[in-house]
Amino acid sequence: MKRQKVYFIVALLLAILSITVIVYKKVDFKKSENSLKLSTVFAISDTSTITRIFIADMYENQVLLSKTEQGWIVNNQRPGSVFKIKDLIITLNSLQVLQPVAKPAQQSVIDMLAVSSTKVEVYAKQPLFQLFGYSFFIKERLIKTYFLGDATQTNLGSYALLQGMSEPYIIYKPGFRGFVTPLFSPNPIDWFSPRIFGTKLTRIQTASFIDIENPNNTFFVEKAGPRSFSLYDFQKNLILDYDTTLLINMLSEFRERNYEMFLSKISQSDKDSILQNFFKIISITDIDNQTTTLKLYHLIDTGSLYEDGDLVDEIYQEYNRDRCYATINDYTDEIYTVQFFHFDRQIQPLSYFIKR
User: Fold this and answer.
1) Has residue 8 been placed in a domain?
2) Which of 153, 170, 191 marks a domain boundary?
3) Cβ-based neighbours of 329, under 8 Å, separated by 6 or more
4) How many folded domains does the chain comprise?
């Protein structure tokens, strides 16, 4: 019975402390509207604890950015762009209040935010309260909810409302010329990592470079040692006399090869047309037997051909020399563009690596 009484007293004290902290936080938050800290009330001081960011607009666009042990992911499916999400975190850390919205305009701004704002929810690992330097009941909690609206007339600030505050404000990001709302895109595509290949040289097990138009230019690579590889021609014949430096340099670039653009709005008929111009397959398998395959398709430029000012051909077509289309891992529903200069060594024929 005595032990039960002790448990009851401890539980009661914790409950009182919890209620006290919650009430204190609410009072403190209300006071912050008129405190000296108002200028930074929109900012998140400790961004290291952020675990998730949810962004949505009024047009059913939404995205969830989640922090995992492998890095940030988009909608629990695809790797997120390290640089874009880092910029977003920096923005959350540096948001400042430029000025309150004038009293006569507050209701119209609130009405505008109610129908055309971008909603941003930020979650982080936070304790329910702290006592004597110790944190209690740490878990993921919703720490801030923003409603971000249009730009001001100067285009240097955004109308915004922070949930829990009664008045809207004009906020900005110091050092950033423009209004901050576009930095919080609700479109998942804007947050995708552009990375296609991210395999270090020492982790490459096999590689294949298949030329569809000229099969004799096809070649294969296989790991032979920690930093050495065997080279084979299109018939899988071992090639002994090749330029080791050229091959190693080319394979080393697979640690970071990116696409240029994801084509989000493309009709099925256009996809079918693109997929007919297939010319190259680049495939990398790592030491964990994970394979990434890039397929390349010619981008065809059309127009009229002129020579010395005279029209030679009204319907002239040629392959674009700067970029081409691509699909990744045989998923043809998503079409990308890649720049040739970014894959210059990877699209070279076998003869490029043979000693002269």
Assistant:
1) no
2) 191
3) 291, 292, 293
4) 2
Q: What is the Cβ-side half-sphere exposure of residue 295, based on CA atoms within 13 angstroms?
A: 16
C-alpha 330/C-alpha 268 separation (Å) is 16
**Within-domain flag for 19:** no
The structure tokens listed for 263 are 């084509």
> Domain check: are 103 and 251 in the same one?
no
The Cα–Cα gap between 229 and 227 comes to 7
Task: DSSP letter for 180, please.
Answer: S
Per-residue pLDDT of the chain (356 residues; tens, 9 = 90+): 555 554 555 555 555 555 544 444 444 444 444 544 788 899 999 999 999 999 999 999 999 999 999 899 999 988 999 999 999 999 999 999 999 999 999 999 999 999 999 999 999 998 776 666 676 677 899 999 999 999 998 888 999 999 989 899 999 999 998 899 999 999 999 999 999 999 999 999 999 999 999 999 999 999 998 889 999 999 999 999 999 999 999 999 999 999 999 988 888 998 999 999 999 999 999 999 999 999 999 998 876 555 555 555 555 568 889 999 999 998 888 999 999 999 999 999 999 999 87
The predicted model scores a pTM of 0.74
Same domain, 215 and 162: no
Indicate the SS3 state at residue 344: coil
> For residue 85, what are the domain limits?
36-191
